[in-house]
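Structure tokens please, single chain.
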Amino acid sequence: MEKQLHLNLLASKPPVAGLQSGSKIRMGPGRKRDFTPLSWSQYFETMEDVEVDNDNSKDTFRIYSSGSHGPVLMLLHGGGHSALSWAVFTSVICSRINCRVVAMDLRGHGDTKVKNPDDLSAETMAKDIGKVVEALYGENPPPIMMIGHSMGGAIAVHTAAANHVPSLLGLCVIDVVEGTAMDALNSMQNFLRGRPKTFKSVENAIEWSVKSGQIRNIESARVSMVGQVKKCEEPLSSPGVSKNISEGIIEEEEDEEGGESNHKRKKEDDQEIKKECLYTWRIELSKTEKYWEGWFKGLSSLFLSCSVPKLLLLAGVDRLDKDLTIGQMQGKFQMQVLPQCGHAVHEDAPEKVCSTVIEILDILGSAAVFYCNGFF
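Here you go.
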């Protein structure tokens, strides 16, 4: 009854004026794109630090939220990202339906502060989700739909399977499949080594993320990358720091101005760098390798075993493994493929992801279909 009551609040909202959320920002001919950072406050209504008990100490999780009515969408980001990766998605979905969005920085990520930030085991992070839900809503939490991307999708599955969120309404996993993830583990360290180690500014980091294709939506990159990088703790004069700066810059053909001019600009940039503080990644993902297998091994069967309605969003159908292919044919979950997206599907195409999630929430409004007929 409570689930139905909350879902009945999903009435569509009229479009709101303001920033064109979800749209790719395009500049006029000959003009450079804008890579300046965007504030979280343009997308979320509130930001708070939620304390939870951890033995004899406290862990603090950074939470961004919007909305005051309807079901709760619990958003879990991917490895190396932060809750800010859900910024544009949040702005879009809250403009279209009545819902409550809660996006959290997982342990070791963003601005979350925990006693042991190096423990990124699936079990520990799944317990974190349950603790945060309890801290936010007490013993009677509202209906919650968990939506997780990549690592966050895997943690969402582990959280659901362990019943850490007893009021769970549904589960949405974005672009993470056991078979593909396990196959990719061997090349993951090479990928991480190929990324820039440092950036001369947040703008530089945003520019790299867009031009390298890590995030294909420039608006999302401008808010998301703020949660992925931090100021370097090492002094600028430390050996091995400055030589990595230029790795973050990818030149575009439209920006070339000739050899002499480029050389002059490089000298000016080098002089400017000496005055600036460098930026690096907030989390060293390469040091979390011992947990990778635990995130993904057995994920398909665990996903299929979850009793709540399930949605799998993929950037390509080739990512399905055998267990999921059979499960999909048996109607054990719904699947949506959003082509022409990179791995960060919810950042690249927030409007499309929102539409798909809203469709599922609309279906959940007639809960009897699921609970009486076992549709999922």
